[in-house]
Amino acid sequence: MHNEPWSTLLRTVHSVLRQSPPHFLQEVIVVDDASTREELHGRLYYYFNTRFPKKVGLLRLTNRSGLIRARLAGAREAKGDVLIFLDAHCEVTNAWMEPLLQRIKESRTIVALPIIDVIDAQTLQYLTTENSESFFFAGGFTWAGQFIWINVPWNERKNHNKIFPSKSPTMAGGILSIERNFFWEIGAYDPGMDIWGGENLEMSFRVWQCGGSLETIPCSRVGHIFRHFHPYTFPEGRDTLAYNTARMAEVWMDEYKRLFYYHHPDL
């Protein structure tokens, strides 16, 4: 997190502690990417030390590193068999963790994704997300390198049963679970990406092309605040989304990268 509002950060941590089986939750690592807000310093340390169990830790980065490198820093500290990455503005629901862990236990190369519901940014009301056909969505992408939500293909709607896991081409990126050793075997996040943007597609392409797969697990649901403004500041005003996405295209898209550059002639 970087300059995350106090209330949403604590809501995330409290929901994880409240809704997760203690015997499955080995630790919670909150990575502070050099936040500058006053309440996220001494006051936050005091709250963590007095209100949370010892399994909740705060890892503070002294220099601004960005989302990708901050997640890598947290992953290096993690000791559990499975890594679950969460944005700092989420709320997990009852029995959210068990379906993710079960699917990874069945196949360690599966990156298990919950259904992402919407938390209203103004009222903080938790809203479920279902499309008009009462099926959840999968992650897709455009040739311009943008993440989009798509309908689950018919061949993935096994017997029209909404409780079965479904393969997803890409992921939104804010919430995912992955077996820790597999995460490092496929190369983890690309540390050459800056600040924010494109890491979700890069990791999606990496997983699929390195022998893994992405699956949406409909029995697991997590709420997420989708903000109407950009919460991050970019050093020197650099367009890191364009840079990161171009880096992803160069590494993973092979001959199809020409379609990406067709939409970005300025890169």
TrEMBL record:
Pfam families linked to this entry: Glyco_transf_7C, Glycos_transf_2
Membrane topology, record value: Single-pass membrane protein; Single-pass type II membrane protein
InterPro entries from the UniProt entry: Galactosyl_T_C, GalNAc-T, Glyco_trans_2-like, Nucleotide-diphossugar_trans
A GO BP entry: protein O-linked glycosylation
CDD domains: pp-GalNAc-T
Keywords: Disulfide bond, Membrane, Signal-anchor, Transferase, Transmembrane, Transmembrane helix
Domain called Glycosyltransferase 2-like: residue spans: 2-149
Family according to the record: Belongs to the glycosyltransferase 2 family. GalNAc-T subfamily.
The protein's name: Glycosyltransferase 2-like domain-containing protein
Source organism (scientific name): Timema douglasi
